[in-house]
Amino acid sequence: MLAAGPAAAGCTYPAPVPVPAGRTARGDEMAAARRPVQAYVASMQQYLDCLGREEAALPEAERTPAARALTVKRPTAA
User: Fold this and answer.
1) pLDDT confidence of residue 5
2) Four-point Cα dihedral 28, 30, 34, 36, nearest 10
3) Could you tell me which of 56, 70, 48 has the C-alpha nearest to residue 3?
4) Based on the number of CB atoms within 10 Å of its own CB, is 2 exposed (0-12), middle (13-18) or buried (19 or more)?
5) What is the chain's pLDDT, residue by residue, as a tens digit (78 residues)?
6) How far apart are the C-alpha atoms of 42 and 35, rounded to whole Å?
7) What gap in Å lies between CA 71 and CA 24, rounded to an integer?
């Protein structure tokens, strides 16, 4: 099972960052949110890369649609 191995502990889902409401936020609020959002995007890419390495390390027989579904659901399972 994908989430059971020791590598599963190595992939950390990034914490969400607050994003101002686009319709009501002032320009300075949007500008202030830019860096945290960019950092979140970079962290999310690192997370996805980690999941890819985790999956690639599995034996071929364990790379199943069910195992992939567990990976997709893992961040929201907490």
Assistant:
1) 45
2) 100
3) 70
4) buried
5) 344 444 445 788 999 999 998 889 899 999 999 999 999 999 999 998 998 888 888 888 887 888 777 766 666 554
6) 11
7) 36
Q: Compute the distance between CA of residue 10 and CA of residue 78 in angstroms, rounded to an integer.
A: 16
Spatial separation of the C-alpha atoms in residues 14 and 33, rounded to whole Å: 16
Task: Write down the residue that tokens 């790379």 correspond to.
Answer: 63
Distances (CA, A) of 68 to 6, 52, 58: 17, 10, 11
Q: Which amino acid is at 16?
A: P
